[in-house]
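Protocol step 4 of 6: record predicted structures for both targets in the notebook before any analysis. Target 1:
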Amino acid sequence: MIVLGFESSCDETGVALVDCSGLGVPRLLSHALFSQIDMHQAYGGVVPELASRDHIRRVLPLTQQVLAAAAIPLKDVDVVAYTRGPGLAGALLVGAGAACAMAAALGKPVMGVHHLEGHLLSPFLSADPPVFPFVALLVSGGHTQLMRVDRVGSYELLGESIDDAAGEAFDKSAKLMGLPYPGGPHLAKLAEGGDAAAFKLPRPLLHSGNLDFSFAGLKTAVLTQAKKLGHDLDARKADLAASTQAAIVDVLVKKSMAAMLQTGLTRLVVAGGVGANALLRSELNAACAKRKVRVHYPELHLCTDNGAMIALAAGMRLQAGLETLQGGYTFDVLPRWSLQASSH
């Protein structure tokens, strides 16, 4: 079963082909991704209307590129999948419209997929795929969640961010330091030359007794510290970046280990854009090794939003018998869609 997947939930257009034949390990046949970072940089953040228009420009050329790279004709695609939500409404509609139109032209079934389920399952395309059950730490730009995952479609929310997500904490803190958009990667790079112990920053909810997250207070503390530094900020920026990153990572690691203890499971899956952070991977690896927990990550090029995770999630849901492919090509999108509501 060859699945063609489209991802267009925010500022990256992703298209991919994944082979989910039989009960074997899914194979990524080809994928292509276009990031809109350069376009949005001038505005300091994503402009939804510009994002939607750029998805329209990119989606068909990327599809042609993916088909050519895999040497697979379009008629051999069995299922077309797209991100149904959550995300920017206009951006989601581009991917949904392209997928449904293509499926209708081919007479093939089409399927809407939850964006976070794509992230959660993306490590199954890695060289070291996980096995069920496991705890998942989802750390994408707008979401920070801990989930218990017993099988495809069975997701129990253990804890989530009650305000800013970890990715937002990275980006907003970076902006307060005057770093360019997108701030997270720039902050992480700057932190490499800084002293993580230079500033004592809060670890919100670290001892709350639950698995929820809160990063808004950390952002406020970074703002306060930046104002205190005043003209000295430039000289101390690397130290402030390192201290900020250390605070975020410390919370993520300790909450993840608490989730492992609470569930009694011995496998952890980390997914989402922040999952590419080098310090987070290093600290999680050390903590998991100490507690005899196996940790799995997506390949680095699949941490960001991409079409491969959407095609994979569709294929795995079909293999698990969670979807019944029916005719009809009408569609809608769900900009606000909980993962639990999409599970069964």
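Target 2:
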Amino acid sequence: MTGVADIGFAPCEICGSVEWRPVRTGAVRDGAFGRLSPDSAVVARCAGCSVERLSEQHCHGGDIYVSARYRELLAAGEAAREYLASHDVLQLANLKVLWPENLRGRTVVDVGCAAGSFLDHVAGLACTTVAIEPCVGYHDSLRERGHQAFSTCPEAVEAGMGDADFVFSFSVIEHVSDPLDFLLGIAHLLGTGGRALVSTPNRRDVLMDLLPADYPAFFYRTVHRWYFDVDSFQVCAQRAGLRVIEARCVHRFGLSNALRWLRDKRPGGADPLPEVPSVMERSWQASLEQAGTGDYLYFWLAKAN
């Protein structure tokens, strides 16, 4: 039995368990591809709720998200216009999962929205769009584009935003210090009958099995404390007073990306290889989504009571 004293992990923030089992020891990604942590990190799985967690000493602190440091680490632009230019195209995956929900006339909140790309895409339908973003450098731009902006969920609730029809949070929960507290914040934003949609990387990503020697060092990263599968996320949601209405696995890349990984041991992007027919690209994605081994998970949530 492995306890917190053995690998230096605190009791699980989600379930309180003190039992952790190491699942990986080695360097992890520290920003853009090719940049690795200088020493070995430990990823361990909680015996109580099965969430995986990166050793705290290898995680970046929350202050990285209130300044430009996070974007600098990723070698990405920090200005709102640069963020929007690179992230607008990424909203297609989120909008596909949202469809066919109707946001017309609804109050919509995006938690951890950065410069607000998703909110811009739905602003024409929603009557109120609320941005929750710790990096205040984005707030002026968000407000100029018609979004109400707050740094935290409690601030938004205190300002009267606790009756939202929809709360969205894409690729954020894996970054936070306490995922249970994070989901509690989302629950407090939801009004009666409201729903939330939360996404996070899937630790059952097929490339973890196909490339066990190379891909984990890319998948695990210093800015992600938490690594979920469907079961561990459901435990966290339940403890936050939320029920999972639907869990959906999505794979955002075609077969060509996997083939490039196998050949080059590096990400290959979304562009197809000329030798791979489009039907094979689509079939690859569909089969992984059905098997639950796509690269992303989306959860529709509602208040349990």
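Step 5 preliminary note on target 2. The longest helix spans residues 278-291. The first strand starts at residue 20 and ends at 26.
Proceed to step 6 after PI sign-off.
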